[in-house]
Design a protein that fits this description.
By secondary structure, this protein is α+β, with helices and mostly antiparallel strands. It has helices spanning 3-16, 25-28, 47-60, 112-120, 138-144, 151-154, 157-160, 227-239, 256-264, 283-300, 311-322, 324-331, 347-355, 382-389, 407-412, 423-433; strands at residues 21-22, 40-42, 64-67, 84-87, 94-98, 103-107, 124-125, 161-167, 173-177, 202-209, 211-212, 216-225, 246-253, 272-281, 307-309, 336-341, 361-366, 370-375, 399-404. Strand 17 (361-366) and strand 18 form a beta hairpin.
């Protein structure tokens, strides 16, 4: 370590306070990203402190990786350099909340559970039922771009993130959007931050649109022989007047059948697939949903009676869908979990292609065509992962990435799949927002 770098690290204590700087290797292990450790971690308490830290890093060319709960640090490629872990956990304040306007402003380190508790007092909620919900924060959820089963009805974070305040790689404070729903000023630059893994800027504050809580919700499960019948049920719902909160199709092969069965209390043997539908509204609306869904399930060839699930079974099924990556990694830490985007009309084709995989697998397909495929590690997965990523852009594998996998697989392949045709534009944007290349360097596609 050079003398100037040593001085820079000592300056972190002056900015955030000695108690908020970590240099002990044992404690730094909590900030590990794909076997890479930072030289220091710092916990700023304000946007002003973040700005000073980023400016210091830019001057000294020190690489920064921002996080808070650290539940999604495994997403993306390993950082090319990693000098400072920027821990945003102290920035956990709800800055403004106007229940009448359905708007909320929070600091980046605010836990989603804290947000949910605050909104619940006014019978409102934020449709971000994402993996690791017990610990996940607003900033990490936005930066990682993970989605929720509720996207079926409410859309993704892009649809209800009204604005973002952030710091560029030069420590310049900027903002995009605003705190009201009707905001037409300027470009939606803040949407670039969603899913960028902190490679463009450090998010400090996020403004959301909130939603009224439904009066009631009910969850229905239908079993089918084969993915084609389950997908036919999905297509029938799409053509109907029904608008479910969420719609998922679940399947598993090999030892994955017993794993998913234990998580859901459902049986997956004998090419058995399940459609899980959640509906919201008053009791009259929900009863109509039950009747129409039962009819559509019969027409699609449902195996058993169309059932409503409640209590513990409903909680287990809901968790298996919303917490899918977390539950898989808890049972099989070395699993590889793909995110696959296909056309809704090609979902059955995708399911057939996945059934030919010899490695034990578990699959959750959202009704809009987004699928999560987990491969369980009974043998080294490097060659299988490379083969699946190589199918990207070939129907029905329209877009394939590998958000969660062991570091060893990342040494053998690029988890982002084939390079995007927009890569040159992405690199230009990176140069504008982070000219020194200090923000999470190398984690995004194309080594951005």
């Amino acid at each position: 370590m050079s003398a100037s770098t040593a001085v820079a690290f000592s300056r972190l204590a002056e900015i955030a306070g000695e108690a908020n700087v970590v240099r002990d290797p044992a404690r730094l292990a909590a900030y590990c990203v794909d076997d890479k450790l930072p030289a220091a971690a710092v916990r700023p308490g304000s946007a002003e402190e973040v700005a000073e830290i980023v400016k210091l890093a830019a001057r000294e060319r020190l690489a920064i990786v921002a996080s808070a709960a650290r539940t999604k640090l495994g997403i993306g490629m390993p950082p090319q350099r990693y000098d400072i872990a920027l821990d945003m956990a102290r920035m956990d304040r709800i800055v403004a909340y106007d229940p009448g306007d359905l708007t909320l402003s929070v600091e980046a380190g605010t836990p989603l559970r804290k947000i949910a508790s605050t909104l619940s007092e006014h019978r409102q909620f934020l449709p971000l039922a994402v993996p690791f919900m017990d610990r996940a924060t607003a900033g990490g959820t936005i930066a990682s771009g993970v989605d929720s089963p509720l996207r079926q009805f409410y859309g993704t974070a892009r649809d209800f993130t009204l604005g973002v305040e952030f710091l560029t790689g030069e420590g310049i404070a900027a903002k995009s959007g605003g705190r009201v729903v009707k905001n037409v000023s300027g470009y939606d630059i803040h949407k670039l931050m969603i899913g960028s893994l902190g490679t463009l800027a450090v998010i400090t504050r996020i403004n959301f649109r909130t939603f009224p809580k439904p009066r009631a919700t009910r969850t229905f499960v239908a079993a089918f022989r084969g993915a084609e019948a389950a997908c036919a049920f999905r297509h029938a719902i799409a053509k109907s007047a029904l608008r479910p909160q969420s719609l998922e199709i679940l399947g598993a092969g090999g030892d994955g059948a017993s794993l998913l069965g234990a998580q859901t209390d459902l049986r997956f043997e004998g090419d058995r697939w399940y459609a899980v539908v959640s509906c919201a509204g008053n009791e009259q609306v929900l009863e109509r949903c039950r009747q129409e869904l039962a009819m559509l399930a019969r027409n699609a060839g449902v195996l058993d009676s169309f059932d409503e699930v409640s209590g513990g079974s409903r909680e287990k099924i809901a968790a298996s869908v919303a917490e899918f990556p977390a539950l898989i990694l808890d049972r099989a830490p070395n699993a590889a979990i793909f995110k696959i985007t296909t056309l809704p009309t090609e979902m059955a084709d995708l399911a057939r292609a996945i059934q030919s995989i010899q490695t034990p697998w578990v699959l959750v397909m959202r009704g809009l065509g987004v699928a999560y495929l987990a491969l369980l590690p009974v043998a080294p997965l490097e060659s299988e992962c490379k083969r699946i990523l190589g199918r990207a852009s070939t129907p029905p594998w329209r877009h394939v990435t590998l958000p969660w996998c062991p570091a060893a697989i990342k040494q053998a392949t690029d988890v982002w799949g084939p390079q995007s045709t927009n890569l040159a534009l992405m690199k230009k944007l990176k140069g504008v927002f982070d000219p020194s290349g200090i923000l999470s360097p190398g984690r995004f596609m194309g080594a951005i």
